[in-house]
Here is the input.
Amino acid sequence: MAESIKDRVAIVGMGCSKFGERFDCSLSDLIIEAAYEAYHDARIDPSQIEAVYFGNVRANQIAGNPVADALKLNGIPMFRNSNWCCSGHVALINACLAVASGVYDCVMAIGAEKLKDTGFGGLGIGRGDSAVMENRRTAPGSFGLIATRYFSQYGLSMDEGRRMLAKIAVKNHANGFLTPKAHFHKLISVEDVLNSSIIAFPLTLFDCCGNSDGASAAIITRADIARGMRTDPIYVKGFGSAIDSTMPHFRPGFSWTSFPSLVKSSHDAYAMAGIRNPREEIDVAEVHDCFSVTEMCIYEDFGFSARGKCRSDIEEGFFERTGGLPVNIDGGLKCFGHPVGASGIRMTYEIYHQLQGTVDNPERQLKNVSRGLSNTFGGPPQFSCVLILGNEKG
Amino acid sequence: MGKTGIISAGAYIPYYYIPRAVLSAGWDAKGSKGNRSVINFDEDSVTLAFEAAEDCLGILDREKTDALFFASTTAPYAEKAHSALVSTALDLKDVFAADFAQCTKAGTSALRLAMDACSAGSFNQVVVTSADCRNAFPKTSQEQMFGDAAAAAAVGTEHVIAELDAVVSTTNEITDIWRNAGDQYINIAEARFVTNHGYMTEMVKAIKAAVAKAGLSFEQIDKFIFTTSNMKDHLTLAKKLKIQPEKVQNTFMMEVGYCGAAQPLFLLTAALLEAKPGDRLLLAAYGNGADAFVFTVTDEVSKLKKNTISKYLENRGELRSYGQFLSFRGLLQADPGQPYNIKSSTAAEWRLQDTYIRCYGSRCKKCGLTMFPVNRVCEGCHSLDDYETFRAPDYKVKVFSYTLDNYAGRSDFPLLGHIIAEDEMGTRYYMNSTDFMREDIQVDAEMEFTFRKIHNLANFVNYYWKVRPVRRMKGGND
Here is the structure.
């Protein structure tokens, strides 16, 4: 690493739409909802935006058109990425790099996804490039592979393993219950999780996040001018982004209990942010909980829990709102659903407000937090992004 | 060059069977006794024929094969060489491939010509593989009597297990059993007309002529192998020819059913498994005429794996729904479900046939790492295009991890196993499972590869591989 990004750029405004089954909204409406909240929060005029970094996977239109058409941002560059679940984070990271390079002073990162216009409940059949090799691959089917292998490797019975995962879902639902913009507001018990219908054994309905619509946006500026725009800018401390070579399904020797991309992206972000002991130094984290088992895997790959030992942390409530390291305090993907391109910036929105002390429901506001982490993890799964924020320089 | 004859035989019975009572219950009627075998939704005559040939090749040197004949009345394409597809799935190279079709005698037509070709020195090792999954009108007795199965025989002149002594064929222009182009179901003329002027007449004629041509008497034949479309025609035929019932080969009508063009080789395989050296077998098959063969079994018959048929009969799953029976056969369209996200292309299928059809992986020549499918760049050492290929289905695999997905499959069979499998070299595979019960899928469970029909995207049949709990390789090829 030539030079860390730490304290060189800041987030001065963020917006996030209501997430859910937004049958009443187009992609354009969602983009407008998030972007105008962000403009307002940053106290800027749209004309001050010099470039847009857009994360989206499934829009009918390609390129930056959905944003340009919705927001009428005329004549500026728009860089779109479709890095699966990490699209929002890639937009954020690229926006930060652009400002850090000195080329732009004020850019917007925006992620938006409209999943509910397909005419059916799911995401369609099959993934990947080949017509036959992954013709029936699903997200629950791929992430469930982590659970089966983890239970087998660490000698957990199916019941023990499923109860451990259920606690993660219960925690996130308890948090999401306090989050107005979340899709789902429902308190659940471990028994509710275990007794809900099995989607992809061993994952049940409540181990899985839903499909929803949503958008989120961030206004990013140079750190040295951020204070002139607001008194409480949030500084970027570090980021990491890594993709694993060869889809894990076909990768020889792959453990299915740990992902090199998760380990590498978190380590890179820690190195930039100067974090040595993440379990102690991270105050709040939003991580990718597309399935309860994904969040479990991240505890260990991010160094929040010792390898093979996350179960005791989960049982002891370490990641709950009152625990040592609250994770997914807004309810996570479990309660927001996962509008793919929007999720990374939505997670960062929660960290931003937690660090500012401006969370929309005081019951969810943590005290004395200065370092927060957001993460998305996606693909078959294969790709991870991490962003670390702080509310003070240094 | 030795005498031409059978050098190996194999069979395949699909995983599913359905009690005949279930079919009749669909119509609130009383059914016949026994079970019939049923294809899974991912099987057709191509995949069945592949299975039988793979079984048959178990005791042979695959590389010596120089011709493959495919025989079926229910081949999936009206125009396209199924023999080319099956021979590629079998990883045969530079073979003559030909299709035999349209008649329940297609299997024995292919067998006879394979014998002639080997006798003439044209080929050294011909694999004849036959399969059928015919449809009779719902509610008919034929719907109950038919069964889906496949059988194969290899023909050659060395290490022969049953030498050909004589063969006679007859031809009879009679519209007794037929299916018009484009129809789903077969038509059958009046029963006594069909039996008396078709089957009985031609079988008697061909059988008598074959016995005479071999210079034998009926008493010198140890086993009579007669095809039959029902429970009794073969026994009536035997009575007519004054053959003791115990000399008549069991027809598997109670377990499998009438498997059309596959039946002659299926019953021949069954007879060979029980035959002793020196036994004389007579095989007679009907279909607009008859083919009758007389064979003498040799010492080499002991090479045949004794469980060639029993391993399939002992490992089956019961289908309990008439709806699934119809839907698996494409006769009833269940909820089509969500659309595919992926696209297919004939060019891609052709370009990737080493993966899709031959199921090759690559072994890096530099560091030895094996990968599936063929990878140009090695995951271990980044070498480029420095690999040799291997055929994955030659290896058993074990489950490394799995998910049993309740919603990923077709609406008529939603349960789908996502399997991460590993072979003895450490190669990793992601495959869907087929022919399984939930409890079969466990970490470390042994599985084997099977060639299956996947979907019809781009308006052609897209084939690929799946894994299943071990059926074929058990005590057989491995």
In short: Chain A has a mean pLDDT of 97. Chain A touches chain B through 45 residues (CB under 8 Å). The longest helix of chain A spans residues 158-176. The first strand of chain A starts at residue 9 and ends at 16.
